[in-house]
């Protein structure tokens, strides 16, 4: 009888743990969706391991930005990246909010204290039609199947005034 009650208490304990894990996972999912509703599709598809996404790093694209590289502060991404691997550049998958996948490379530049996401960043910008003043938000996560380091990039377009757009178009005509 004693063995039976012990196994019942263990199964109750396991059920409680499973419930806590399920609730914690659901909490991560809800937090990500509440912060950026565009992420819901990516989470529903099941690419994100345990629904755990990093906090977003946001950057405004500017006219002097190098469209071939996206620079990410090391302080924001060190907890998610294995510095030994990244020092030599590693292939990573970058997703947009529709689940389209882009192959890129990630490398850490120790002296300058940041990571560089490149070899595909320009293609991403072109296909998403990103331009100056648009704001990108970058999050890291582990792939649910491969456990590889991945990124998801969301963005907000900054609407320009018509006069600015016309001025840019006219100036390009005379260049």
TrEMBL record:
Coiled coil: none annotated. It comes from the Eukaryota. SUPFAM superfamilies: DNA-binding pseudobarrel domain. It is found in: Nucleus. This is TF-B3 domain-containing protein. GO terms for cellular component: nucleus. InterPro entries: B3_DNA-bd, DNA-bd_pseudobarrel_sf. One of its GO terms (molecular function) is DNA binding. Its main location: nucleus. Keywords: DNA-binding, Nucleus, Transcription, Transcription regulation. It comes from Flemingia macrophylla.
